[in-house]
Amino acid sequence: MLLALIASTVLLQAGQAAAPATPPPRPDCSAAEHRQFDVWVGDWDVVPNNAPPQPGRKPARNTVTSSHDGCVVHEHWDAPGSTGESFNIYDRTRGQWHQTWVDNTGGLHDYWGRREGANMVFEGPRPRPRTPRFASTCGSPSSTSAAARCASSPSASTPTGRGA
User: Fold this and answer.
1) SS3 label, residue 32
2) CA-to-CA distance for 26 and 30, rounded, in angstroms?
3) Which residue has the higher pLDDT, 105 or 20?
4) What is the pLDDT of residues 43-93, one digit of tens each?
5) Mean pLDDT, the chain, as a whole number?
6) 63 strand-pairing partners
7) Based on the number of CB atoms within 10 Å of its own CB, is 37 exposed (0-12), middle (13-18) or buried (19 or more)?
8) Quick one: pLDDT at residue 81?
9) What is the spatial distance between Cα 30 and Cα 8, in angstroms, rounded to a whole number?
10) Any idea what DSSP says for residue 33?
11) 51: phi > 0 → left, psi -120 to 50 → alpha, else beta; which?
């Protein structure tokens, strides 16, 4: 009788432990902070340092996409002799943007950034003197033209094709 009582108790406890728990809700990237860099999404011809296009030379190409359910802004850079990619994500734990840049020279750079008014500013150590990688001056994401929304410094960008 005692053995049957112990066995029943063990089975009852095992049954309770096996009941599935409701998992916590999965975080998403729908908050406004995660949309701050959407203005950069698009296909861009880039002429460094506001230089006029040189005859016979194509400008650099920058294709920027939104991926991973809108949580990552993914940059694809292609210029003569230079290719690279960056992965940009809003880090909700730090309240700022993070960018990891990799390129065809084996370069790996990490930058932290934030929105300052209409600007996105990223900073971090570089092999050269410490300077911002870029600061973009962007208007309202609700503007109808990507050209009216964003120009980058130190490289000016002129969007072509699709824009955010």
Assistant:
1) helix
2) 12
3) 105
4) 998 887 767 777 887 888 999 999 999 999 999 999 988 999 999 999 999
5) 74
6) 43, 76
7) buried
8) 87
9) 49
10) G
11) beta
In this structure, what DSSP letter does residue 5 have?
A: H
Between the CA atoms of 124, 47, 45 and 112, what dihedral angle is there, to the nearest 10 degrees? Answer: 10
Residue 23 has pLDDT above 80, yes or no: yes
DSSP state of 25: P
b/e for 141-161, b at 16 or more Cβ within 10 A? beeeebeebbbbeebebebee
Eight-class DSSP state of 55: T
Terminal-to-terminal C-alpha distance of the chain: 73
DSSP state of 19: S
Higher model confidence: residue 71 or residue 155? 71
Indicate the pTM of the whole model.
0.64
User: Which parts of the chain are beta strand (E)?
Assistant: 42-48, 60-67, 72-79, 82-91, 96-103, 108-116, 119-123, 134-138, 150-153, 155-163
